[in-house]
């Protein structure tokens, strides 16, 4: 059985932004991120995660984000299986109340 995926609330992510505790990865499609991303987030669309592993460090902590939390959960599951330290942001951008950049 796979290990449980750690979750983090949008409020916890917002509180941790100033401390740069996590690297945020937005797995939404290009047209979705054009509507705004969490400040400082990296955009790696879900389908490109497997080919982007060389851009990620196993000793860093990542928070994965999508629109509702489902795609980022799938990406979190995949990355965790590859040995990465990840958390899924519950509720995705639908629950994000913080600042966004365009």
TrEMBL record:
GO molecular function: transferase activity
Top-rank taxon, per record: Bacteria
Start and end residues of each Rhodanese domain: 18-101
PROSITE patterns: RHODANESE_3
Leader sequence segment: none
Gene3D superfamilies, per the entry: Rhodanese-like domain
UniProt cross-references to InterPro entries, sorted A to Z: GlpE_sulfurtransferase (IPR050229), Rhodanese-like_dom (IPR001763), Rhodanese-like_dom_sf (IPR036873)
Keywords noted in UniProt: Transferase
Family matches, as SUPFAM superfamilies: Rhodanese/Cell cycle control phosphatase
Protein name per Swiss-Prot or TrEMBL: Rhodanese-related sulfurtransferase
Protein's organism: Salinibacillus kushneri
């Amino acid at each position: 059985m796979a290990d449980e995926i750690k979750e983090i609330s949008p409020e916890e992510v917002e509180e941790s932004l100033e401390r740069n505790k996590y690297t945020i990865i937005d797995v939404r499609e290009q047209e979705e991120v054009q509507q705004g991303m969490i400040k400082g987030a990296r955009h790696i669309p879900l389908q490109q995660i497997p080919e982007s592993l060389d851009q990620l460090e196993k000793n860093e902590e990542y928070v994965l984000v999508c629109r509702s939390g489902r795609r980022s959960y799938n990406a979190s599951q995949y990355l965790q299986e590859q040995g990465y330290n990840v958390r899924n942001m519950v509720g995705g951008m639908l629950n994000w109340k913080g600042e966004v950049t365009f």
